[in-house]
Specification:
Radius of gyration: 14 Å
Distance between the termini: 27 Å
GO molecular function: monooxygenase activity
Domain ABM: 6-71
Order of helices and strands: EHEEHHE
Keywords: Monooxygenase, Oxidoreductase
Number of strands: 4
CATH class: Alpha Beta
Strand content: 25-35%
Helix content: 25-40%
Organism: Streptomyces himalayensis subsp. aureolus
Number of helices: 3
Protein name: Antibiotic biosynthesis monooxygenase
Shape: globular
CATH architecture: 2-Layer Sandwich
Number of domains: 1
Strand order of the largest sheet: 2-3-1-4
Largest sheet: 4 strands, antiparallel
Length: 95
């Protein structure tokens, strides 16, 4: 899952809610981890890794997550895009 967003100005509780959701998603069976980055201009990208689509569906239906989604549309985001994709292969390098 790849979530890209452009934030509105100000926090309005966003940071606290994001922290809560980061803890909450860890309890979803099949959640494998996530990576996030945000630019000073407000563009953010979060990549969430899930074992399968059932795990994504469980996260999508979580009531706290749904409430945060609603608040995001009303207050926190100018725009966002969500892509659901399958990773076929992955590798990395670290010194």
């Amino acid at each position: 899952m790849v979530f890209t967003s452009v934030r509105t100005e100000g926090d309005g509780g966003y940071g606290e809610t994001a922290g809560r959701l980061e803890e909450l998603v860890k309890d979803v069976p099949g959640f494998l981890g996530m990576d996030s980055a945000r630019t000073p201009g407000g563009l953010g990208i979060t990549v969430g890794y899930f074992r399968d689509e059932d795990a994504i569906k469980e996260w999508r239906s979580d009531m706290e997550h749904r409430a945060a989604q609603k608040r995001g549309r009303e207050e926190w985001y100018e725009s966002y895009t969500l892509h659901i994709a399958k990773v076929e292969r992955s590798h990395g390098f670290r010194k």
